Amino acid sequence: MIPRDLLERIRRIEIRTRRRVLTLxxxxxxxxxxxxxxxxxxVREYVPGDEVRALDWxxxxxxxxxxxxxxxxxxxxxxxxxxxxxxxxLFGSGSKSKREWMTELGAVLAFSAMRxxxxxxxxxxxxxxxxxxxxxxxxxxxxxxxxxxxxxxAQGRGTDMELALRxxxxxxxxxxxxxLVSDFLGGVxxxxxxxxxxxxxxxxxxxxxxxxxxxxxxxxxxxxDLESGTLRWVDSSRPAVRAHWADTFARRxxxxxxxxxxxxxxxxxxVAGEDPGPHLEQxxxxxxxxx
Length: 291
Hints:
Layout: H1 4-26, H2 29-32, E1 37-45, H3 57-63, E2 67-74, E3 78-84, H4 98-115, E4 119-125, E5 129-136, H5 139-151, H6 161-171, E6 177-182, H7 190-199, E7 201-208, H8 210-213, E8 220-224, E9 231-235, H9 239-263, E10 266-271, H10 277-290
Parallel strand pairs: 3-4, 3-6, 6-7, 7-10
Antiparallel strand pairs: 1-2, 4-5, 8-9
Helix pairs in contact: 1-4, 1-5, 1-10, 4-5, 6-7, 7-9
């Protein structure tokens, strides 16, 4: 039984994401991802131009004229959200933390999958596997995923991306669409991404806070690494300090994008607090054109 206050929070997220879901569903979500394979649909009489390899020789022999097999794409997909719930997600320079923003992003993707008739699952990870919910259908299941995103209290503070990727390799037996949602502060291994992407359809969603890219001139600041607990003082009034901050971010961004390209993984860089809908729609549009 879901407590009333939690149910209200889930419903608020559902209402906020509904317009985005309808936009994505009416747009490119359906055609952006391939199904599991091809299912036999029917046989029909051969017409000039049909693929000869599609001839059904048994039916053709019985009917006395050539017939071909017709196949259709198996549309149902397994979609899995793999979300980083390490302590760095608790940071937010705006009205919401990265973790809260990731929850709404996950809700958009989960409800889009449900509306499309696909199965959706969830993996929450930090420096350990926090929770794994197998993919299933239905609106109640979608609400459960959002609930888990909202209320799960992570046991670990750090991030072990390799552990999460290996867990996905081990548990996802069928081809699936995997959305890897993280701030990627610890980086990522291109070889691991490539290995997972060979079997599945992996999409990386890199979530960052605006303050991680640009340090404002606010004078002496005490900063804490939320994963390690390390504290340090930074004089943000010094231009050299702000330039070093921006340069460090630029190098991290370059490393991530290089790893994603090397692995052949589609990726989006998203800023916490901004509407993700237009960015997701553009990603799906590019994919539908490509496939």
